[in-house]
Design brief:
This protein is of the alpha+beta class. It folds into three domains: 108 residues, Butyryl-Coa Dehydrogenase, subunit A, domain 1; 103 residues, Butyryl-CoA Dehydrogenase, subunit A, domain 2; 151 residues, Butyryl-CoA Dehydrogenase, subunit A, domain 3 (Up-down Bundle), CATH 1.20.140.10. The chain is built from eleven helices and nine strands. The strands form three sheets. The protein has a four-stranded antiparallel beta sheet with strand order 2-3-7-6, with no helix packed on it. It has a three-stranded mixed beta sheet with strand order 1-4-5, with helices on one face. Helix 7 runs antiparallel to helix 8 and helix 8 runs antiparallel to helix 9. The longest helix is centred in the middle third of the chain and has 38 residues. It is globular, with a radius of gyration of 21 Å. It starts with 6 loop residues before the first helix and ends with a helix. 51% of the residues are buried.
């Protein structure tokens, strides 16, 4: 792996950092407090080419690759993690369409999705759990010139605001993926979950009751729906979570370091105290190690490695960076002392956001199962 970034990637980092500092930092607390989907900011990321950053220019994307996406998500999440999480989840459906969809589906939907004129969600998880998707109970039945869907999906990020949902359902002993447009009879989002962190990104239950979709809404080959969704969850979902985690950790670390240099105790900055320095060192080393794991996973995908073949590297990145994000954010609260839990310093907000990443795109325990399997195989 070449550890140097290209000029294009360095420019991207600078552009996204300027956007985050100028447009997100002044409004982060307000957006978090209101808890509303940041539509304006989401569309601004699309203007910067971030929503379709992995997607081919042929379909409206910027085609910069997975490592570029990792860098962009990290920079956004350094200031406002919920918007970074939007950039984690929205491209999953885009990836499914580009890698598994028909040519007509790609040309019909991808350009508008990359421009964030429309949003897409991916619905796999059910009340029975998300760690074993083969246990899903949602069904899709062929009926005349279409399909009829029945079932429930839970913890579907941006499901409430999505114009389009990729839904995976069981058809006998196969799993198919379908495109369901907002407003289709029999499709509704009856409930939004209440979460401690990532407050402005809606996570919803979706219900399908006799929901009829046309036959052309079957995504790709019949029987390949779950495989396409799992590939997207690995290549886009888990790498995206690692990027958000890096941003949470970096933003928390910078806040703690700034406070430690400014806060004075016994006539000198608390940063001079060895106890504080040791916490800052642990934070710094964790972030650097996590960044190497995360960047490597994204780089492998850019080199053409499949999500399956890179699965253990992706799992390592997600596992470690999420632990680092929560450890660094908790240490930042400690460094700030009584100020650490006040909203004006933003570290408690980042800690709440970090906690949400523990189960996102697969629990930490599932990551260990993937890594463990690669070790003993």
């Amino acid at each position: 792996m070449d550890f140097g970034l290209t000029k294009q990637q360095e420019m991207l980092r600078n552009v996204v950092r300027e956007f985050a500092e100028a447009e997100l930092a002044p409004r982060a607390a307000e957006l978090d407090e209101r808890g509303e989907f940041p539509l304006e900011q989401a569309r601004r990321t699309a203007e910067l080419g971030l929503v379709g950053i992995v997607t081919s220019p042929e379909y409206g994307g910027s085609g910069m690759g997975h490592l570029a996406r990792m860098i962009a998500i990290e920079e956004v999440s350094r200031v406002y993690p919920p918007l970074g999480f939007f950039l984690q989840v929205a491209p999953m459906g885009i990836y499914i369409l580009e890698t598994a969809g028909t040519e007509d589906q790609k040309r019909k939907y991808l350009p508008a999705l990359c421009r964030a004129e429309k949003f897409i969600a991916t619905a796999v998880t059910e009340p029975t759990g998300g760690s074993d998707p083969t246990a899903m109970q949602s069904t899709a039945r062929a009926d005349g010139d279409g399909w009829v869907l029945n079932g429930r999906k839970v913890f579907i990020t941006i499901g409430e605001v999505a114009d389009l949902v990729v839904v995976v359902a069981r058809t006998d002993d196969k799993f198919n993926a379908f495109l369901v447009e907002k407003g289709t009879p029999g499709f509704e989002a009856p409930r939004r979950e209440k979460h401690a962190g990532l407050r402005s990104i809606p996570v919803s239950e979706l219900a399908f009751t006799g929901c009829r979709v046309p036959k052309e809404n079957l995504v790709g080959q019949e029987g390949r729906g779950l495989a396409a969704a799992l590939a997207a969850i690995a290549a886009v979902g888990r790498t995206g979570v690692a990027g958000v985690a890096l941003g949470v950790a970096q933003g928390s670390y910078e806040a703690a370091l700034r406070f430690a240099k400014e806060r004075r105790l016994y006539g000198r900055p608390v940063a001079d105290l060895q106890a504080i320095q040791f916490m800052l060192v642990d934070m710094n080393v964790g972030i650097e190690a996590g960044r190497l794991l995360a960047y490597k996973a994204a780089w492998l995908l850019d080199q053409g490695k499949s999500p399956r073949d890179a699965g253990a590297d992706i799992a390592r990145a997600k596992l470690y960076t999420v632990y680092v994000a929560n450890d660094v954010a908790a240490k930042a609260v400690e460094v700030l002392g009584a100020c650490g839990t006040t909203p004006e310093y933003h570290v408690i907000r980042r800690l709440r956001d970090g906690l949400e990443l523990l189960a996102a795109a697969g629990t930490q325990q599932v990551m260990k199962v993937i890594i463990g399997g690669s070790i003993v195989r």
